[in-house]
Each structure stands twice: as C-alpha cells, then as structure tokens.
Amino acid sequence: MGLQPRDSAEDRSGVEVGVGPVTFAEVVAVARHGAAISIGADARRAMEESRAVVENLAVDTIPHYGVSTGFGALATRHIPTERRAQLQRSLIRSHAAGSGPEVEREVVRAMMLLRLSTLTTGRTGVRPVVAETYAAVLNAGITPVVHEYGSLGCSGDLAPLAHCALVITGEGRARDADGELVDGATALRRHGIEPVALAEKEGLALINGTDGMLGMLILAITDLRRLLTTADITAAMSVEALLGTDDVFADDLAALRPHPGQALSAANLRTVMAGSPIRESHRDPEACTRVQDAYSLRCTPQVNGAARDTVDHAATVADRELASAIDNPVVTLDGRVESNGNFHGAPVAYVLDFLAIVAADVASISERRTDRFLDKARNNGLPPFLADDPGVDSGQMIAQYTQAGIVSELKRLAQPASVDSIPSSAMQEDHVSMGWSGARKLRRAVDGLGRVLAIELVTAARALDLRAPLDPAPATAAVVAELRRTISGPGPDRFLAPEIEDAVGLVDSGAVVAAAESITGQLK
User: Fold this and answer.
1) Which residue ranges form the domains of the chain, and what is each CATH number?
2) What is its main location (predicted)?
3) For 170-329, where are the alpha helices, taking DSSP H only?
C-alpha cells in the first residue's frame, strides 16, 4: 500500500532533532530515504534538566501519574520504588498488543522520528540515552514490526508506539536493514546498540503521542500535492483530446470566486494546454456549435482547487502538531509535571478524514472524464472505447471498469473514522479519535487516486494520438512522449495490466509532472 516516492540526493541529507520542529521534508527524508539523524547539544541539556524534575518526583511520597502509579484505569495504585522498573517493562510489553499485517517501513520510521522529536524537546522527562537509542535504531535501518490494528488514536498511538519501544529494550521483533525478520535483541546486537532499561516515566513517554497518525498525514500530504498537480495535467490532456475549451479557465473568471486553489488549478490547466493545435482546430464558433462542456471538464479547477485548499488546511494542522510536545504527564517549561489531554488525536483525525474525501472526489471527476472518451455519443468523433477495430477490439473499456472499481472503494474509504469513538480502559478513556484508522484508510485512498489518474493518463494520451494529424499542446505532447517510452500508442488490443502499472509508476515517481514542466516550467 502507498506510493513509491521520488529519490534525490537532497532527500538523504542529515536531520538534526532538538533544534526546532522537524519539517515535512525531514520526515520524508528519514521515513523514505534513510536520512541520518543526530541530536543537538541543546536537546541533550533540555532532556537532562527535565529528567532531574522526574527523578525528584520519583522519591516523593505523594503518588505522581506515570512516575509512581499504574496507568489508565489503574492509575490509583501507588507503585513502590523497587517495582518501578518492572512497571515500565510491563507497560511496554502489555501495550505492544497489535494485530494484523505489518505496517509499512516508511510509516514506522516516520512515527519513530516524530516520537524522537518530542523526546528531544525536554518536555517528556526521559534520559538522553533513550533518545540516542531511538536515533541509533533509525540510523541502523532497523524497523520494529508494527501491526495494522491496535491504536484508537487517543492516549497516543499506544500499541504501534509500544511495538517500537519494545525493540529498544531488546524485545519484540524487527526488520533489519535488509528486511530480514529478527528479534529485537538480535537487531540491536548486530549494530552494537545497547538495549535500554527504562526508568520512571520513560515507558509512558515513548507511547503517548499522535506520531503514527501524524507521520501518515505528512506522507499523504506530500503525495497528494504531487497527485493534484498530476490531476491538473491529466485533466488538461482530457479537455484537449475531448475538444473542450480552455476559455473557462481564464484568470478573470477564477478571480470572481477567489479560492486560492481554484486559481492555481486553472492556471495549470491554461499553461498545460497552451499552444495546442487541437484546441485551435475548433475555436471558430461557426464550426463548433457546442456552447458548454460537461461539468467533469469545465469544473475541474473548482474540484481540484478545493482539494488543494483542503490539503493546505491539513498541512497547517500538521505543522501545529509538529511544533507540539505531546505526552501525559508533561514537564512544563517552568518545571511542573502536569496531566493533560494533548494526546487526543482529534485535530489530526479530522483532517485525515477530510483528505480521504478529497482523494475520492478528485478520483471521481477523473473517472468521469475517462468515461466520456469511451462513449461514441460523447467523445466528439473518436472510435468507441478508443478501440482499433471496435467489436473485435474492446480498447479501453475494462480499464475504465478498473477505475470505477477503485473510485467506488474510495467513496467507502471517505466515510469518516473520527466520529466512531469506542470507550476503552474501563471507561477511563471513554472518547477516542480513531485517527490511526483514519490514517490507514487515507493511505489506501491516496494509492487509489494515483491509479485512477494513471488510467486517465493512458486514456487521454491514446485519444490525443487518435486526433492526428492534429498535434497536441507542447506540454501534453511531452507527457505523451514520456508515456510512450514504455507504453505503445493506439493499436489492436493487448495485455493492459502491465501498461496500467507502468503508468502508475510514472504518476507516483513524479515523471508525469516532470515531463510537463520540461515545457512549462514549474507548475503551481
């Protein structure tokens, strides 16, 4: 599940944590490209100072949650000093209760980096050695095995984070850098990493955050930004090949409804279609009697633009979360240790659900454009199903079925997870966010959107070829040329599945955007 990202030397540059919030680019660099991590001296000092606060509380006769008590509904029990090491071990072991398929490596790495970023703020009270061990595990390419199910998105992504914490203690299971499944102790030993014996509060600090859902949100936003530019390109190809008009994308028309995303999308459509002989062939109103294009052509900037604005809103939420120090209890800047509810995933969960709606709707309008190509009554002179010999050949008929099946699933995935709270921990944790579930379905939705756009790309490129001897716009011609490096043009029916997968690869790698931008310059 998920998209295969572009690679670059910049992606592998080092990341220093503890000097301010990590950025989207740094999360992607560590999660997807193995960027090295270091911890700054200021972060070490901050951790040492807050650890001193926790150690003072550890000898206090008054119980303090997470330091000298049980957890959740068991917080009323005071734990004596000699049992507290066992308390931390028991916490991590018992909370590492996930089930189901393994979560993707990039998600686990993003989650660990974000937890490490919070640890280095000095607001959690852990010793520097805990953070240093997390950094060493990431730098060694060790990936704890985390499972699909286990987080309710409240009190942190508890089970997923516990599976990560278990490995640094020398327990649990992990994938080594080469993907081999080993136990946690073996993974650490192979790289000369000492297991950590957790002290007071440290187990809780390792699992009490929204890092899993936030990591998946950041990866999804990164992918959606590329896919929305791609959606503008494939839409421009479809409008052009269906003999639609770009007049409706004029800047002054977009300005009448000043949503910023709409203006950007309309500008992309105009830019990609610029200089098209196909478009010029039907500009004469006496020769072309159509007054308006269908909504799936004419309203593309409104849909793609609204999607852009929604992604920007989600990015604002993610930026705030990146600047957060989430733990319970938390060590405040003035040295207090206070219980709080900042671990609740609602802010992240809501935008995860919102982005699943975005993916479904952008895919839906893309599928509608593809379908128009296949209907002789609506494709303005192209053969039915773009087939070479209609009747003998089926052309793109079933590729659209594949699109339709994906779009139907995306509509189901757009149902919100964040309204589905289930009480837990003997009603102590009686309202949860389900943000992890929202993030998991969003990853599937983003993957589906890329596949839908790939099928529109293949279909629109075939239609542009069938408009010969008229040439497409220089930018769309460059995209078609990129596609034709691996996928042949119109002709008799052939095995379509490999061609669709090749197109998915071009969409996911950014090659479609790069091909268009080789003519247009950077698109918006």
Assistant:
1) 10-209 (1.10.275.10), 217-520 (1.20.200.10)
2) cytoplasm
3) 184-190, 202-207, 211-241, 251-255, 260-273, 277-280, 295-298, 300-322
Going by C-alpha positions, the residue among 465, 451, 308, 456 that lies closest to residue 373 is: 456
CA distances from 384 to 379, 399, 443, 462, 524 (A): 8, 14, 35, 12, 35
Full-model pTM: 0.94
330 by DSSP, 3-state: which? strand
pLDDT digits (tens, 9 = 90+) for 44-95: 999 999 999 988 887 776 777 767 676 666 666 777 777 777 888 899 999 9
Q: How many angstroms separate the CA atoms of 417 and 422, rounded? A: 11
Q: Cβ atoms within 10 A of the Cβ of 63, count? A: 15
pLDDT, position 266 = 98
Task: State pLDDT tens for residues 365-422.
Answer: 999 999 999 999 999 999 999 999 999 999 999 999 999 999 999 999 999 999 988 8
Residues in the chain: 524
Q: How far is residue 44 from each of residues 132, 269, 335, measured CA to CA in Å?
A: 9, 50, 16
- Strand order through the sheet with 143-144: 143-144, 173-175, 181-183
* Averaged pLDDT, 116-129: 95
Q: b/e string for 450-485 if b means 16 or more Cβ within 10 A?
A: bbbbbbbbbbbbbbbbbbeebebbbbbbbbbebbee
Write the pLDDT tens digit of every residue in 306-327: 999 999 999 999 999 999 988 8
DSSP letter at 393 equals B
> Which of 65, 134, 149, 401 is labelled catalytic?
65
295 a catalytic residue: no
Q: Which residues of 135-147 are buried (b: 16+ CB within 10 A; e: fewer)?
A: bbbbbbbbbbbbb
Tell me the three-class secondary structure of 60-109, residue by residue: CCCCCCCCCECCHHHCCCECCHHHHHHHHHHHHHHHCCCEEEECCHHHHH
Strand partners, 37: 15
Check: CB of residue 116 under 8 Å from CB of residue 326: no
Q: Which DSSP letter does residue 1 get?
A: -
